[in-house]
């Protein structure tokens, strides 16, 4: 092969690879917009907290995590009961959407069986 044909072959391959990467970026953007829409809808329909309140305050406590955090791990005592679940709720300064779900809240049991019973719940930060 001549140097010029190798050059054009390289240009063609670069164009093909860039087309694949643009397509995958567009698909990733579409997927991210769909996930954000689904998370926003889920957060509007459900409270940010669970049934348990924190043992010192009696109400749930929001643990604000970075906005890039998408999942949380829940630890449970027992054989393979640990779970990974998505973080749907986003922290907001709007007081109408930041209210905790209906109380009264359950107290932390004497012998908790999982980390959700401590009354601390993850929500993503706005920054």
Largest sheet: 2 strands, parallel
Mean pLDDT: 78
Main sheet: strand order = 1-4
Approximate helicity band: 25-40%
Shape category = elongated
Unreliable segments (pLDDT under 50, ≥5 consecutive)?
none
Q: What is the count of helical runs?
A: 1
Radius of gyration: 23 Å
Instruction: Tell me how many strands there are.
Output: 4
Number of folding domains?
2
What structural category do the secondary elements indicate? alpha+beta
- Give the H and E element order: HEEEE
Q: How big a fraction of the residues is strand?
A: 5-15%
Query: Ends: how far apart?
Result: 54 Å
Please explain how this structure is put together:
34% of the residues lie in helices and 14% in strands. With 127 residues, it is α+β, with helices and mostly antiparallel strands. The protein folds into 2 domains: 1-45; 47-127, no CATH class.
